[in-house]
Specification:
Oligomer: single chain
Number of strands: 12
CATH architecture: Alpha-Beta Barrel
CATH topology: TIM Barrel
Strand content: 15-25%
Radius of gyration: 20 Å
Strand order of the largest sheet: 3-4-5-6-7-8-11-12
Helix content: 25-40%
CATH class: Alpha Beta
Largest sheet: 8 strands, parallel, barrel
Structural class: alpha/beta
CATH superfamily: NADP-dependent oxidoreductase domain
InterPro entries: AKR, NAD(P)_OxRdtase_dom_sf, NADP_OxRdtase_dom
Organism: Halorubrum trueperi
Pfam families: Aldo_ket_red (PF00248)
Order of helices and strands: HEEEHEHEHHEHEHEHEEHEHHEHH
Domain NADP-dependent oxidoreductase: 34-211
Protein name: Aldo/keto reductase
Length: 370
């Protein structure tokens, strides 16, 4: 698991090679504000090899935040992350490794009949209860998450992960009420609190797609205040003290998907009991949560010249459109780290080089939306 001393030591290795605030508070110390994601790519040996090399290059170059999930690339992504981290000259305790659980993963390749696979691999052995499934492939019940975390640790080949996210909990809203989803999350958090006390998890959170970006009350909406309160309750229930490990959220954020900054959709009774709703980014900042952005360059769409609106593009630093798009995401007030995935060494170098430019200041970022 990452340690304060090793994380700060990694930062010091790079001296002044990067721009202002490239390394930011994360976990027990600091980590790069550009992280490498592992979502995209076919589940093939060729992509495994390319991803392994890309992660290794990123770790050597100033990126010490690696994000994956149990279901990415049919379970192959976690294995590759583990292999790359173990083979790296960078010490494991200088790397923030995050993964997620919730979606039922395939085992190395997509089966011909996914429904039969879920039934034979998960339902019949009793790993999941069909009543807990949403869309036939999503489960956040405590027993399943415990099982999933153990399998993730096996695939990663490590005794612990720095962050473990409950993956897209809003998926459960297709089959149950919001109150039932909040109850399910609290039960999941109790599991993660126990695993945190045991040293298997450094901290935990939720990784979402739409839950924190849509209007209050809309179909996939979830209240970050309520989720945070459920984590506090889980921390109090599990002990050994009243603390809790809910430390981070992950959500899409880029120049075309800026809802987490622009939409005031979160009530904040603990922050301002009688005040108006605030944005997800503002709530996270006030609650002391780290924010990790996914889709930071729109899964490559924003890397094309002209994809960023000209007036916004003119405010951003970077030699390429991809660098400027990445620096937009990193500039949002409250953002800790922005993920970008690549298996191309040239793209990895381009993404890392984005960190040599200064992000926008808070007032300059605000001005983009005036």
């Amino acid at each position: 698991m990452a340690t304060r001393e090793a994380l700060w030591g990694y930062r010091d290795e790079f001296g002044d090679a990067f721009g202002r605030t490239y390394f930011r508070r994360f976990g027990p110390g600091v980590a790069s504000s550009i992280g490498i994601g592992t979502y995209l790519g076919d589940p093939t040996a060729a992509v495994d090899d390319a991803a392994r090399k890309a992660i290794a290059l990123a770790l050597r170059s100033g990126v010490n935040h690696v994000d994956t999930a149990a279901n990415y690339r049919c379970g192959r992504a976690e294995r590759v992350v583990g292999e790359a981290v173990r083979a790296s000259p960078i010490d494991r305790d200088a790397i923030v490794v995050a993964t997620k659980g919730g979606f039922l993963p395939f085992d190395g390749e997509r089966p011909d009949d996914p429904s039969a696979y879920v039934r034979e691999r998960f339902v019949e052995p009793g790993i999941v209860d069909p009543a807990d499934l949403a869309n036939g492939a999503h489960d956040i019940a405590p027993d399943y998450l415990e099982w999933s975390l153990d399998r993730s640790l096996d695939r990663l080949g490590t005794d612990s992960v720095d962050y473990y996210y409950v993956h897209n909990p809003e998926t459960q809203l297709s089959v149950r009420s919001r109150d039932e989803v909040y109850d399910a999350l609290e039960a999941a958090f109790r599991v993660l609190e126990r695993r945190r006390v045991a040293g298997d998890v450094g901290g935990y959170g939720v990784a979402t797609w739409r839950a924190f970006r849509v209007a209050e009350g809309e179909g996939p909406y979830l209240s970050l205040a309520e989720i945070h309160a459920r984590a506090e309750a889980a921390g109090e229930a599990v002990g050994p003290d009243d603390d809790h490990g809910f430390e981070a959220i992950q959500l899409p954020f880029n120049v075309a998907m800026a809802d987490a900054f622009t939409r005031a959709n979160q009530r904040a009774p603990a922050i301002s009991p009688d005040g108006p709703p605030i944005s997800t980014l503002e709530f996270a900042h006030e609650a002391g949560l780290s924010v990790v952005t996914s889709a930071s360059i729109g899964q490559g769409d924003l890397a094309a010249e002209g994809a960023i609106p000209a007036d916004v593009d003119a405010t951003l630093a970077g030699d390429t459109a991809a660098q400027r798009a990445l620096n937009f995401a990193r500039s949002a007030p409250g953002v800790t780290s922005s993920l970008v995935g690549s298996t191309d060494p040239a793209h990895v170098r381009e993404n890392v080089a984005a960190g040599t430019f200064d992000p926008l200041g808070a007032s300059a970022f605000d001005a983009v939306f005036e």
